[in-house]
Design a protein that fits this description.
The complex is a heterodimer.
Chain A: E1 4-13, E2 16-26, E3 31-35, H1 42-49, E4 57-62, E5 65-66, H2 69-72, E6 75-78, H3 90-100, H4 105-118, H5 134-146, E7 152-156, H6 164-179, E8 183-187, H7 191-197, E9 200-205, E10 208-214, H8 215-222, E11 226-232, E12 244-251, E13 255-262, H9 268-277, E14 281-288, H10 292-302, E15 309-310
Parallel strand pairs in A: 3-8, 3-9, 6-7, 7-8, 10-15
Antiparallel strand pairs in A: 1-2, 1-4, 4-5, 9-10, 11-13, 11-14, 12-13
Helix pairs in contact in A: 3-4, 3-5
Chain B: H1 3-18, H2 21-48, E1 53-59, E2 74-78, H3 84-89, E3 98-102, E4 114-118, H4 124-145, H5 151-158, E5 166-169, E6 175-178, H6 180-214, H7 217-224, H8 227-263, H9 266-269, H10 274-283, H11 288-295, H12 299-311, H13 314-342, H14 349-372, H15 377-384, H16 389-396, H17 403-431, H18 441-449
Parallel strand pairs in B: 1-2, 1-3
Antiparallel strand pairs in B: 3-4, 5-6
Classes of the chains: A alpha/beta, B alpha/beta.
């Protein structure tokens, strides 16, 4: 059972359907990515989980029960459009957000001081937000999101607006929070960070759930049983009926790089044996799994996939 | 609703405003400005007087010239020998501002015809003062034609100068000297202050909602607290600021009054307090008829002013002010909060504000009629109907309002506030997260019905 279970969640805005019977399980202690093109309904779903808006039908369960105010205090939310009071001092502002999340003043103060120190920004405490650069304000906002030690972090596009150094810093913090047991939901368009960070994903397109499950599972599912083969031989390898086809083969007279498409039911050992039998000297034999980026584009533009598919995590 | 969260929001809204320099500035500058505003009419009168106008006079009647007295404003030059046409031609060369031409006395009507020629039109003040001086000349001419000895003196003696002293009679049948003007002034001051307070502080709520929405803080906030909590926290926080300001002004006023009392002494300003005058009279052995004449002089007006001022029920005025301000403010602030939530920047708010600002302005105008006729139909309904009642009732209050009217008006205001707060909160909760498209009234209606 996931920490967050979305069950048949529907939401309309006027005539426009924003979410259409979306069901997702977000497992505890993992990093879970919400993917989807702009306007797919990700932000609406995130807002519903945060109880900012209510679903028309369906429900959200937090640890198996409907979300309550105490649960909201255990959520940390970083919206896509960042916002801080421009005229307010950084420290006071961070205190305010922490207090709204149910922390006592003293507790909030010590926790915030810890984070400010960690990020090396103690001297910003008394500065107004309007004096900070965009990247600096983002750091402050990240701190306000995590200071109350949330057990669920919802980060909408967490890396946008950060330079590579700070993006890495945030990435490490996210992994650190996961290690400490937090569940993290992040919505992003950056497929590399999905591959690097996420354990599971849900892909939403046109207000429907297209697929959800573990990143590895999905990548393998969309892998078309191709193998990358690097070998040394005087002549290029040829297709073997019942075992594999050669899709491409490049290289000079001795060293070749080929892509093989394995036939249904053909085991890799049989294929390897066959290749060895052909007298090839094999340098590398590697399963080719598609990148998330390709899967994303394929699913969003192709639309061939049956909607609502769920993969085991 | 979560009381703790509302408390945290209130304290932020309150603290950020009260610590601003502008709050201190307004607290101390506004009373000074207000005092200046009161003396403004006198200053305007002083500055608007014309001075040093030169008027050339051709007096064909032979009776008017001695009555034309020079003043700061005009000086008269006797040019009765001159020809009117040449005078007209040379008016600029002579440095004159106008030529006054008085016809010979008409034997039938025993009057004169007065013509005035000038390059620039003469002011009404000068025209009127000339008319009255010429009138005096003609009156005296006519009186003298009756050939009765001392007629002029007789006429002077006959003139009567009547002033009406007003009293209010209490239930105990005891009467108090009052000044209608004082009631009116107190009423004007109350109206201005409550209008200013409601407009200023509910506007402040709107600005602050727009700021939260456009800076996108709103979304973070509503992920921690309910939109309704945020809205009421803000409205209550700003109300506390208003009450603080009001309280500081009362303290300031009290300090000033005590200060004046200590240095000059209020009693000496009210020298005509009847009891005191009687006391003084008895001690100095004067008889009571003399005291009456002392009291009934010009001083009695002063006495009435002070007695009225002393007699006003300040407790009730301040209490009603606070109650009506709070309710009126809550009503308008929740509407303004809803409007603020529906727009992305302050510029777009003008159109949506209109239905809310119109009743507020209307109340202000009705209040102006209420000064003059506090018990008229217009003033009565204005002080009962919730949107105008906070302002109009305050205008009526110094003149005395029956308790049932007060109660009815307060209850209606409270009920309307509760109903509109519900409506506003529903709009606010949706509007806060909307952006991009410009909001119309149709959208507001949709949001209101949205689940």
């Amino acid at each position: 059972m996931g920490l967050i279970q979305c069950k048949e969640v529907c939401r309309k805005f006027g005539e426009k359907v924003a979410l259409d019977h979306v069901s997702i399980d977000i497992p505890q202690g993992r990093i879970f990515g919400f993917l989807g093109p702009n306007g797919a309904g990700k932000t609406t779903l995130i807002r519903i989980i945060n109880r900012i808006i209510m679903p028309d039908s369906g429900e959200i369960l937090f640890n198996g029960h409907p979300v309550r105010q105490e649960d909201v205090e255990r959520i940390g939310y970083l919206p896509e459009e960042r916002g801080l009071y421009r005229k307010m001092k950084v420290g006071e502002q961070a205190m305010y957000f922490a207090r709204l999340k149910g922390m006592g003043s003293r507790e909030a103060m010590s926790e915030l001081k810890m984070w400010f120190e960690k990020f090396g920004i103690q001297n910003w405490w008394n500065r107004k937000v309007e004096e900070l650069s965009k990247g600096m304000a983002q750091k402050v906002q990240f701190i306000t999101t995590v200071a109350h030690r949330p057990s669920l972090l919802i980060l909408d596009e967490p890396f946008s607006g950060f330079d590579p150094v700070n993006a890495q810093l945030i990435r490490n913090e996210i992994l650190g929070l996961k290690e400490n047991g937090a569940t993290i939901v992040l919505s992003t368009h950056n497929m590399e960070s999905v591959e690097e960070l996420c354990d599971g994903i849900a892909l939403i397109n046109k207000s429907k759930l297209v697929i959800s499950g573990s990143v590895d599972g999905i990548r393998h599912k969309y892998g078309n049983n191709n193998v990358g083969l690097v070998y040394t031989s005087s002549s290029p390898v040829t297709s073997e009926p019942g075992l594999f086809d050669v899709l491409s083969d490049t290289g000079d007279s001795s060293r070749h790089t080929a892509v093989l498409s394995l036939k249904e039911g053909a085991g890799t050992s049989a294929v390897l044996q066959c290749l060895l039998d052909k007298g090839l000297s094999i340098n590398s034999f590697k399963e080719l799994i598609p990148r998330m980026n390709d899967i994303f584009i394929k699913l969003v533009t192709g639309g061939s996939e049956e909607p609502g598919q769920r993969m085991p995590m | 609703m979560n009381i703790r969260n509302i408390g945290v929001i209130i304290s932020r809204e309150y603290a950020t405003r009260v610590r601003k320099k502008s709050f201190l500035v307004i607290t101390f500058i506004v009373p000074v400005l207000f005092a200046l505003l009161c003396t403004l009419p006198a200053i305007i009168m002083l500055l608007s007087k014309e001075t040093g106008k030169k008027v050339e006079v051709t007096d064909r009647s032979g009776i008017v010239m001695p009555y034309l007295k020079d003043s700061d404003a005009v000086s008269f030059v006797d040019c009765s020998d001159g020809n009117l046409d040449t005078l007209k031609k040379n008016i600029v060369a002579d440095g004159a501002d106008a030529i006054l031409c008085i016809s010979p006395v008409d034997p039938e009507t025993k009057s004169v015809k007065v013509d005035m020629y000038s390059i620039k039109p003469v002011s009404v003040d000068i025209k009127e003062s000339i008319a009255s001086m010429v009138g005096e000349a003609v009156e005296d001419y006519r009186l003298s034609s009756y050939s009765i000895d001392g007629l002029k003196q007789i006429m002077e003696d006959v003139k009567a100068d009547i002033t009406v002293s007003t009293y209010t009679v209490g239930e105990d049948g005891e009467d108090r000297m009052t000044s209608s003007e004082v009631y009116m002034i107190v009423s004007i001051v109350l109206t201005l202050v409550i209008y200013m307070f409601i407009a200023m502080f509910s506007g402040m709520v709107m600005t602050s909602v727009i700021e939260e929405k456009s800076s996108k803080v709103a979304e973070v906030l509503v992920s921690s607290v309910k939109a309704v909590e945020l809205m009421f926290g803000k409205i209550i926080g700003v109300a506390c600021v208003a009450l603080t300001q009001f309280f500081l002004w009362i303290v300031l006023a009290a300090v000033i009054i005590v200060g004046i009392n200590a240095t000059v002494g209020l009693d000496s300003l009210m020298g005509a307090d009847p009891d005191q005058a009687q006391e003084i009279a008895r001690m100095s052995g004067m008889d009571m008829s003399m005291v009456d004449t002392v009291v009934s002089g010009n001083d009695s007006e002063m006495a009435a002013v002070f007695e009225t001022l002393m007699d006003l029920n300040y407790g009730q005025l301040i209490f009603s002010f606070v109650v009506y301000f709070l309710l009126g403010y809550l009503l308008y602030a929740s509407l303004f909060a809803a409007i603020g939530s529906a727009v992305d920047n302050e510029g777009d708010s003008t159109q949506l504000q209109l239905p809310v600002t119109i009743p507020l302005l209307l109340a202000f105008f009705i209040a102006f009629y209420a000064f003059e006729a506090p018990d008229s139909q217009l003033a009565f309904w204005g002080s009962i109907i919730p949107f105008t009642s906070p302002i109009v009732m305050l205008a009526r209050l110094p003149f005395g309002v029956p308790a049932w009217e007060l109660a009815l008006s307060i209850v209606l205001l409270l009920l309307t506030f509760v109903a509109l707060a519900y409506v506003s909160a529903r709009i606010y909760r949706v509007g806060l997260l909307m952006s991009g498209k410009k909001t119309t009234f149709a959208d507001l209606w949709k949001w209101l019905k949205q689940k």
